[in-house]
Amino acid sequence: MNGEPLLEVRGLVKHFDEGSGLLGRRRAESVRAVDGVSLTVAPGETLGLVGESGSGKSTLCRAILQLIQPDAGSVCFEGRELVGLSQRRLRPLRPRMQMVFQDPDASLNPRKRVGEIVGTPLELHGIASGAELRREVGELLERVGLSAEHYRRYPHEFSGGQRQRIGIARALATRPKLILADEPVSKLDVSIRAQIVNLMRDLQREMGLAYLFVAHDIGVVRHVSDRIAVMHDGRIVEEGPADLVCEQPREAYTRELLAAVPVPDPREARARRLDARRP
Amino acid sequence: MSDRNLLEVRDLSVTFATEEGVFQAVDDVDLDVGPGEVLAVVGESGSGKSVTALTLMGLSRGPNASISGSASFEGVDLVSAGERELRRIRGERIAMVFQDPMGSLDPVHRIGDQIVEQIRAHRETPRGEARRHAIELLDAVGIDEAASRADAYPHQFSGGMRQRAMIAMALSLEPSLLIADEPTTALDVTVQAQIVDLLRDLNRSRGLAMLLITHDIGLVAEIADRVAVMYAGRVVEQGTLDEVFYDPQHPYTWGLLGSLTRIDRPRPERLPQIPGAPPSLVDPPQGCHFRPRCPHEFERCPRVPGLEARLPDAPGHLDRCWLDPAEKRERRPVGEGDS
Fold first, then answer.
1. What is the pTM of this model?
2. Are residues A256 and B260, on separate chains, in Cβ contact within 8 Å?
3. Which stretch of DSSP H or E encloses residue B201?
4. Taking all residues of chain A, what is their mean pLDDT, rounded to a whole number?
């Protein structure tokens, strides 16, 4: 499938009906969380999806993975339409697209050992078992910068950055082609954030992974992405090569987003404030 | 205490007795905040920056906490002050703003009433006058139609408006120091920028001094006059904003500044990263706490370096690193002239 996108989303719509509220008020209108989104991700590429809270980016991820049923539109993955497929037919496709979450604390079962957490998807999809499973898990742990000896430990024995590595190892277990990463570094400290960003990039090179990298921080998104899509109020308002979107934004909203990013350079920050004051 | 400082923290240490052992959250911390000055305390989680702020407010006291050192503020030592005196100082002289305004606003009372109660708890002010003052404050922090919005409940406000309301409440008794702990972290980036502008305006127009606790180096560059960098319970570097950003002296500061993504620069192939993770504060490394992650470690590092001025031309620029300043300038990958 040379030249074909790995993931192609066309006209995706998802709205939520706001039923009776807490205080019994009824609101008739529905909220268009995702309002006609189209995007593509090529094999081995990173598409950055940037947006603020309420922009619909998390709903979009869940609709792409068919964790929620879209109201309209299509999601093609490796040339196959996913919308409307039964859970049974989706199941063999799931290993090929995996997810990495923002908060490893909430997404790793605290009662399970690391080996089990990383090994379960292998077992579930019938990829490996027994001694082979153990060997695979050891390799995965080493691949994400942990050690095979960590197999028997529990998540709480690791730091936040190491727990995110466990989440990545679990996502990699089924040898996916696409990883949807929803704010994978936003809860991590700066020094650890760089480690995880570099790790994700190394893994991409080694394994030919494609990422849909979702984040609110356009600085991080620009660093990791080949292309950037800017999402606002359920729509993609601008899309293009990462440097172009950041250096020559076309849309007012993108410019606003970029202008709001603090520059970690006092002289630049002072100059920007002077510019802003000039009429 | 010298006349020039509003707040002077010396040798502040805070330990907590835990099941795993003694946890050294704050270790021999010195900080100065001048009148009308913004000091940013920057550090990662577990660096001790929030415990330092809570200790200054008398909020880290407890049966398993042990606190030593001093913190002089307007003639009072906040470390040894009694609860009654601290209650007077909190709110009236030192106000605090937290990351999550929802957690600090009372959900069942109207915003305006909460400010009125705060004023009347400390001052004998007629209700009508306190209410007029509350509306003025809401207006001053940029809440449109303040008179009618004062009757709203916290859940009817957006995150940014709630943070503005918190700041209005903090200002209500005209404190001389505002302690702001991650005031923008929970907000969207466009709202963050508005709150930063508001804090800067309040600092300039009212001469309100701030102790800003944050992990966000971008925020520091936007607002601080001086910076203290904390790592594993200790201040490892302190100086003016430009000193710390353009002539950083501690290898941890180099790592922090180097690992940032810059929207205004060409992107590097890889982000420079600090290897490893911060140490356990129950069993920290002997000597310099950054030693296990530092590529410049040498034989002096197992002894704790003091927080000292090591540059002849910058007496206010302090750091905790044994390396010779000339050697630092040669080795460091960030700061003036590199790039």
1. 0.89
2. no
3. helix B189-206
4. 89
Which pair of tokens denotes residue B146?
A: 């303040």
State pLDDT tens for residues B151-188. 999 999 988 999 999 999 999 999 999 999 999 888 88
Subunit contact A160:B221, Cβ cutoff 8 A: no
Q: Distance, in angstroms, between B88 CA and closest chain A CA?
A: 36
Which of A255, A200, A202, B193 is CA-nearest to residue A214?
A200
Distance CA B212, CA B40 (A): 5
Say yes or no: A222 contacts chain B, CB-CB below 8 A: yes
Could you give all domains of chain A from N- to C-terminal order, each with its CATH number?
43-62+92-277 (3.40.50.300)
Confidence of residue A101 (pLDDT cuts 50, 70, 90): confident
Give B117-139 pLDDT, tens digit per residue.
999 999 999 999 999 999 999 99
Residue type, A55: S
- Residue type for position A217: D
- Kindly report the nearest CA distance between residue A160 and chain B, in angstroms: 9
Residues B187/B160, Cβ–Cβ less than 8 Å: yes
Domain B1-93+175-339 has CATH 3.40.50.300: yes
- The pLDDT > 70 percentage for chain A reads 94
Closest by CA to A102, choosing from A261, A260, A220, A245, is A220
Structure token digits, residue B73: 């503020």
Chains A, B: CB contacts within 8 A come to 107
Interatomic CA distance for residues B168 and B192, integer angstroms:
16
Chain B residues within 8 A of A264 when measuring between CB atoms:
217-218, 220-221, 245, 257, 260, 262
The amino acid sitting at B157 is F
- The letter for the amino acid at B129 is E
Nearest CA in chain A to B293: A191
Backbone angles phi, psi at A185, to 5 degrees: -120, 0
Q: In b/e form, how buried is each residue of A45-54, taking b as 16+ CB within 10 angstroms?
A: bbbbbbbbee
- Which residues of chain A does B226 touch, with a Cβ-Cβ cutoff of 8 Å? none
Scan for tokens 């909220």, then name that residue: A31
Share of chain B above pLDDT 70, in %: 98
The predicted-structure confidence for A202-212, as pLDDT tens digits, reads as follows 999 999 999 99
**Triad B51, B53, B59: Cα angle to 5°:** 75
Residue A22 pLDDT > 60: no
What is the distance in angstroms between the Cα of B132 and the nearest Cα belonging to chain A? 30
Helix axes A252-260, B189-206, angle to 10 degrees: 50
The domain segmentation of chain B, as residue ranges, is 1-93+175-339, 102-174
Q: What is the pLDDT of residue A107?
A: 82
The CA distance from B263 to the nearest CA of chain A, in Å, is 5
Confidence tier at B269 by pLDDT (50, 70, 90): confident
Residue B130 CB coordination number (10 Å): 21
Question: What pLDDT does residue B196 have?
Answer: 92
Contact status, residue B46 vs residue B278, Cβ threshold 8 Å: yes
Contact between A223 and B261 using a beta-carbon 8 Å cutoff: yes
Question: Left, alpha or beta for B182 (phi > 0: left; psi -120 to 50: alpha)?
Answer: left
Spatial distance between the Cα atoms of A130 and A137, rounded to a whole number of angstroms: 11
Token pair for residue B226? Answer: 């001086």
Residues 269-288 of chain B with CB under 8 A from chain A are 270-275, 277-278
Alpha-carbon separation of residue B114 from B27, B91, B105, B166 (angstroms) = 37, 13, 8, 10
